[in-house]
Amino acid sequence: MMRPVQTVGMQLGYFLHKKFYHTIAICTANRRDSACTTLTELFSKIAFPSQTEIIVVNNGPEEDTNYIREHLRQLYTGSEIPWSVYHEPIKGVSHARNLAVEHAKGDIISFLDDDASPSSVEWQVAVLNVFNTKPEVALCGGPTWLVPPVGFGSHPWWRSSTTDIYFSCLNDYSPGYCPPGLIAGLNASYRMSAIGSTRFKTRLGWSNGKALPLAGEETLFNEHVCTNEWKAWFEDKAIVLHRIEPERYNTKWLLKRAFMGGKTEAVFETIHGRRIQQVRLEALKRIFKAAAKALINVILGRPSSSFSEICAVSSKMGVLSARDIYVE
């Protein structure tokens, strides 16, 4: 078992007396192999094993829960890192995340997706250092670097900084305070005392069940946590690698993701008090502008820029398809 990083010095000394300080939670559904890959990579990236616990919440078949539990049993045999695996039968990532919050023993809880892994031990060092030195911070996130599928080109004709956003890729930000909505759910850490009774809204979040087929549950959660003068912080050293599956690394998936992102955008506008009719009118105007820009970029031989505008069209079509909803 590796030893804690020594260069941290006394930065975290105040917390090291606690049995648990840092909970790392991974929620997964129908992707047990990807989750196990993440858990294997995570094992070698934990800087403070005696102050860390691992929680996995499976939102898929119960046999996957047993599979993941056995993987962890073999992986962590002889380790001082405690771990737990739970099964959440109610479909929806928000249900899974809420179960993780309920079971977390740490002062800090970090959520990683089942296809996202810290780039190095520096991720945990950086995250805990932010919370230790900035008592006003309730939420911390960092860069997300896209990792293309094995055997696929890293820069296909359609890829750009715009399309990377649909893969939750964040790179070009400096460390500092930031809007809560900037922090992506696959690399988000929270102070448990700031979370309090706040929970992820179960009518939002990707799901095969009754929840709306929308993203955005983490954005709304972030906004609710960062109230009463709590702040969000972007830490450029807290880097996570996001492995993209082959079935997602293509234009068809990106257009679908843009469409669903547009529906989510419209829902958020109504949550924040805007009339859906006005939101749809603005979306209609953007569709015409984006379509014109796409055509111009085709003529100028700029395929990636053209596809970015086509994604914008798809996104605003999603806005037009949205309706008013009530999120409790």
UniProtKB/TrEMBL annotation:
Task: List, for all copies, the residue spans of the domain called Glycosyltransferase 2-like.
Answer: 23-140
Q: Which domain of life is it from?
A: Bacteria
Q: What is this protein called?
A: Glycosyltransferase family 2 protein
